């Protein structure tokens, strides 16, 4: 059964009805991220795609409010018309799960707290999330936050709800910060570095005074799949460093970075269109994968640990890697069979205190391998207590993040 509320009052009624019936709900917007997390065991779908529209946009105040089912593409188009953007650069993972591009909703973006390559400079979705209105698993309407950071009092529930994957509340209105689009964007490319040398080069760039916005490393096999000619035709690995801002400043900083990185190998520079296309590929990752059916892991580690973790995994497991966030985010593609390499991957990540999320795998694999990294006992107990407060009957997306949540 599919429930489709068209206003907040109806949403509250539907959640309250499900609570009374003891009927779990699967929350969806456009459904572009249904393959993320454990398979759902809910007979009823709560479809929030009918809750659409921008309700407030004040370009001068850099703030926007929109209903949760509003397409991200529509929001980005409205922002672009005023020279503004979502600075956390939300990735479009629709194609990653076999769906269309441009279909995801702002509610799904906030609920999953995903962010693109600019995260090392601008933060994640939760860092731009100012306020919301929602319905809890108790069937109660509530709200938190406001239109500016200084209006937030009490507990900052935005930080809690962002990244909760719909397990705590059904969002119906979200308010978030927006920022001006940079006047100019360029990318300095370093060719031929291995993962260790590339990580050192990215660290040098990020530690320089040149205000780097993003840094990523594409091994040769990954670079060969790029649609950007300078990258695809390189025949070797490509390390990319992005710089944004006023045109004169960008030109000076790019020149300085070319000199800094030029001591480590051959360098090139991408200007606006090619630069934008490369970072969109890195952000969305799907087009750079070796196989549309490959399992995909998202590893979060300290940047300097990235190459060692990738090498440790590669000794026991056939895989391909892509490094983002200066090396702190490692995309790892493995065969989507057995446990998708979970034992090897998580052992390597645990050794350096990181965590590994199985972002994509067949449902049969995700049913037996926890997609989200298992939490320490104390943290897991805290997560259960939080769930008990918002959704004690386990009505909202039960089991999405963990079997007991």
UniProtKB/TrEMBL annotation:
- Where in the numbering of this chain does the FAD-binding PCMH-type domain appear? 1-181
Indicate yes or no for the key word Transcription.
no
Chain coiled-coil ranges: none
Q: Which GO terms describe its molecular function?
A: catalytic activity; FAD binding
The family database entries (InterPro entries) matched by this protein are listed as: FAD-bd_PCMH (IPR016166), FAD-bd_PCMH-like_sf (IPR036318), FAD-bd_PCMH_sub2 (IPR016169), FAD-linked_Oxase-like_C (IPR016164), Oxid_FAD_bind_N (IPR006094)
UniProt KW keywords: FAD, Flavoprotein
Classification via Pfam families:
FAD_binding_4 (PF01565)
Tree of life domain:
Bacteria
UniProt keyword Flavoprotein, yes or no: yes
Q: Which Gene3D superfamilies match?
A: 3.30.465.10
Among NCBIfam families, the record links this protein to: PRK11282.1
Please give the name of this protein.
Glycolate oxidase FAD binding subunit
Organism name: Stella humosa
Supply the source organism's classification.
Bacteria, Pseudomonadati, Pseudomonadota, Alphaproteobacteria, Rhodospirillales
């Amino acid at each position: 059964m599919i429930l489709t509320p068209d206003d907040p009052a109806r949403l509250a009624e539907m959640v309250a009805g499900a609570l009374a019936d003891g009927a779990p709900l699967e929350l969806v917007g456009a459904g572009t991220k249904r393959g993320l997390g454990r398979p759902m065991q809910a007979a009823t779908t709560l479809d929030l795609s009918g809750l659409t529209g921008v309700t407030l946009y004040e370009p001068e105040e850099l703030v926007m409010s929109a209903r949760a089912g509003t397409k991200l593409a529509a929001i980005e188009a409205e922002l672009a018309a005023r020279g503004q953007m979502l600075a956390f650069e939300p990735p479009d993972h629709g194609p990653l799960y076999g769906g269309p591009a441009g279909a995801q909703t702002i509610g799904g973006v906030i609920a999953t707290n995903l962010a693109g390559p600019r995260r090392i400079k601008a933060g994640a979705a939760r860092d731009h999330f100012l306020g919301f209105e929602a319905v809890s698993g108790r069937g109660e309407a509530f709200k938190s936050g406001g239109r500016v950071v200084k209006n937030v009092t009490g507990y900052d529930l935005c930080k809690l709800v962002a990244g909760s994957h719909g397990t705590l509340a059904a969002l119906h209105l979200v308010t978030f910060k927006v920022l001006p689009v940079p006047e100019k964007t360029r990318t300095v490319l370093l060719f031929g570095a291995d993962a260790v040398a590339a990580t050192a080069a990215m660290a040098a760039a990020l530690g320089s005074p040149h205000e780097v916005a993003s840094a990523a490393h594409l091994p040769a096999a990954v670079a060969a799949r790029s649609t950007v000619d300078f990258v695809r035709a390189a025949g070797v690995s490509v390390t990319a460093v992005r710089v944004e801002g006023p045109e004169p400043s960008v030109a000076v900083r790019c020149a300085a970075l070319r000199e800094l990185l030029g001591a480590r190998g051959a360098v090139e520079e991408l200007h606006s269109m090619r630069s934008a296309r490369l970072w969109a590929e890195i952000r969305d990752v799907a087009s750079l994968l070796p196989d549309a059916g490959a399992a995909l892991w998202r590893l979060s580690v300290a940047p300097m640990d990235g190459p060692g973790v990738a090498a440790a995994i590669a000794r026991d497991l056939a895989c391909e890697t892509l490094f983002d966030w200066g090396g702190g985010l490692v995309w790892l593609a493995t065969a989507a069979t057995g446990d998708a390499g979970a034992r090897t991957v998580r052992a390597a990540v645990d050794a350096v205190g990181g965590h590994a999320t199985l972002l994509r795998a067949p449902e049969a694999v995700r049913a037996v391998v926890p997609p989200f990294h298992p939490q320490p006992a104390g943290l897991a107990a805290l997560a259960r207590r939080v769930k008990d407060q918002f959704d004690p009957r386990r009505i909202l997306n039960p089991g999405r993040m963990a079997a007991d949540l």
